[in-house]
Write a structure and sequence with these properties.
The chain contains four helices and no strands. It has about 110 residues and is mainly alpha-helical. It has a domain of about 70 residues. It is globular.
Length: about 110
């Protein structure tokens, strides 16, 4: 991570994630499994971003507020609307060990280069 000359200029990654980051953080923050552990980690991530000036302090406060206030309505029950009419192969079954911070290799298909 490189420091920006002007802290108000966001890099491409920070700009790309900024519109959706609050709702993403809220969804993980309020996810029922490992809730305490997730909340502690997410608070530390926001503190780290603030210390490294990834986002300005006002944005950090807004992200934290959105995260703590909760995920959007109907955020957890069932698959997202865009998946509800399609295949459910990648949607975890009820009671499965899905964790929003874990990477599941079975969800990724290898790329074959010729």
């Amino acid at each position: 991570m490189q420091r920006r000359i002007n802290p108000h200029d966001l890099d491409n990654e920070a700009l790309a994630f900024k519109p959706v980051l609050g709702s993403m953080l809220a969804r993980i923050y309020h996810y029922p499994q490992n809730k305490d552990e997730n909340q502690s980690r997410l608070q530390k991530i926001l503190q780290f971003w603030a210390s490294k000036e990834v986002y300005d302090q006002d944005t950090i406060y807004k992200l934290e507020g959105e995260m703590v206030s909760g995920p959007p309505v109907n955020s957890f029950p069932g698959p997202p609307k865009e998946l509800s009419t399609g295949s459910t192969d990648s949607v975890p079954a009820a009671g499965s060990s899905f964790h929003p911070l874990a990477i599941h290799a079975e969800h990724f298909k290898p790329i074959v280069l010729l």
